Amino acid sequence: MKQETLTITDNRTGQSYVVPVERGTIRAMDLRQIKASAGDFGLMTYDPAFLNTASCRSSVTFIDGERGILRYRGYPIEALAEHCTFLEVAYLLLFGELPEERQLENWVSEITHHTMLHENTKKFMEGFRHDAHPMGMLVSTVAALSTIYPEAKAIHDADNRLLQIKRLIGKVPSIAAMSYRHSLGFPYVYPDNDLSYAENFLNMLWKMVEPKYVANPVLARALDILFILHADHEQNCSTNTMRSVGSAQTDPYLATAAAAAALAGPLHGGANEQVLTMLDEIGSKDNVPAYVKKIKEGHGKLMGFGHRVYKNYDPRAKIIKWTAEQVFEVTGRNRKLDTALELERIALQDDYFVTRKLYPNVDFYSGIIYQAMGFSPEMFTVLFAIPRTTGWLAQWQEMLLDPEQKSARPRQVYTGEDTRQFVPIEQRVPAVVKT
Ligand code: CMC
Q1: How many CB atoms lie within 10 A of CB 49?
Q2: Tens digits of per-residue pLDDT, 128-176?
Q3: How far is CA 97 from the centre of its chain?
Q4: Residue 420 phi, psi dihedral angles, 5° rounding
């Protein structure tokens, strides 16, 4: 009979151990019993960057990277992008089920009524330099909300937790829009409760002196779809940060700020900004072969290509490509699309990219749409952070309610000096500093 166990033989001692296998994993703690001698600490695994370590059990998002599948709570991303609004998907991620009509109405109304920011936030944001990066402003201002809502520390109180979740989903777009207006030197725009989540965000970004901002419905829907696609992506770098910081029972504003800081990096959410820089550098379709050759020779990476989990076409990139066509009908074609399409065409038939299973990821086309919609590249990661806030919160709440989770604290393999004799300062030789 097939047994769900693993037998490990320690060749140092000749001893064998049987450990249970559950859902394709063994528990790392089961390895601790494997000792080379009585005083031995026990075996650990070494896995920098968690390449083969499940850090949690989660029922939020499913990815099959080999087959290019993404589902939120079991629903394929394609169906959600086609039929839902972002707030409907946010409800699904947080509560596990799609809302029926009445529940959705209440949910939308509650989020809408949490979009206003305390006036102090405005003053706080005015203190940033005129050319401050909007992502730096977003991270700092989300962290600053912790000082406005000190009761958020009561993370074990379910009602209180839900209130902070609604506040964050409501207020992050307002902060994002203010950070953009700040960089342009425009006055901040207050939220408009008559508008949908995406329309209101566009209103806070673009409204000038007109009494009422009316968003183009195609652009508002495209933005909503982009929000759906970016809402969660299981244990990526920023979500892992959210769980790790949150595991210390830090309040959700500080934990979200930490997650957003991780997102800002160019290998994560910052990649969409880098894609545009890269397309500018390439210049035109004709220069693509030479650029690809340079990458293959080891000069940099093709931004927006490759993924730690997807070894197939990122399903989000397919939907974004389709959405781009809708957007360009309104805005006119972004000529960078031609360079991007040529880059994709050449890369997907090049042995270097094929053998390494490097396909376009979510960031490859999103920046081109954002730019066509009028956003400058510095805003791209902020646009990613708005919907991902919901994913971070869903994962944070799941972590808090999981009885197996404790404060995150990895082990290390120490490679430094053994005990050294202390040397008084006057007897020391100049240190050779390693950096
Ligand atoms: N261009 C050229 N070569 C690449 C690329 C790329 N974009 N990505 C990976 N490789 C090569 C890499 O040099 C390595 O080659 P070799 O085996 O010869 O050393 C091989 O492919 C495996 O790469 P890796 O760095 O071990 O793969 P990883 O899983 O650690 O990296 C990644 C994943 C996303 C960090 C990486 O593909 C990358 O840096 N891509 C460009 C940045 C980017 O688009 N990031 C957005 C990721 S999706 C959205 C998000 O997570 O926020």
Answers
A1: 9
A2: 999 999 999 999 999 999 999 999 999 999 999 999 999 999 999 999 9
A3: 22
A4: -115, 155
Q: Among the atoms of ligand 1, which is closest to the Cα of residue 305?
A: 7
Mean pLDDT calculated for residue range 247-262: 98
Confirm if 94 and 390 have CB atoms less than 8 A apart: yes
CA 159 to ligand 1 centroid distance, Å: 41
Amino acid letter for position 229: L
CA distances, 60 to each of 102, 167, 379, 383, 412 (Å): 23, 21, 27, 22, 29
Q: Token pair for residue 84? A: 């839902």
Specify the residue with its C-alpha closest to ligand 1, atom 24.
Answer: 308
CA distance 366 to 129: 28
Residue located via tokens 């009908």: 329
pTM: 0.93
Three-point CA angle 34, 50, 48, nearest 5°:
80
Specify the ligand 1 atom closest to the Cα of 263.
52
Which residues are catalytically annotated?
268, 307, 363
Measured in whole angstroms, the distance separating CA 222 from the mean position of its chain's CA atoms is 19
Strand partners, 15: 10
Residues 187, 192, 195, 198, CA torsion sign: positive
Residues having CB closer than 6 A to ligand 1 are 236, 267-269, 271, 295, 301-308, 356, 358, 361-363
Distances (CA, A) of 135 to 117, 132, 193, 396: 18, 9, 25, 21
Q: What are the structure tokens assigned to 110, written together?
A: 């509650």
CA 132 to chain centre: 21
Question: Could you give the C-alpha distances from 263 to 138, 310, 345, 383, in angstroms and in order?
Answer: 11, 18, 28, 11
Query: What distance, in Å, lies between the first and last C-alpha atoms of the chain?
Result: 55
pLDDT at 1 over 80: no
What count of residues does the chain have? 435
Nearest CA to ligand 1 atom 29: 308
Q: Which residue has the tokens 């197996």?
A: 404
**Residue 287 burial by Cβ neighbours in a 10 Å radius (0-12, 13-18, 19+):** middle
Cβ partners under 8 Å of residue 380, min gap 6: 272, 273, 276, 366, 367, 370
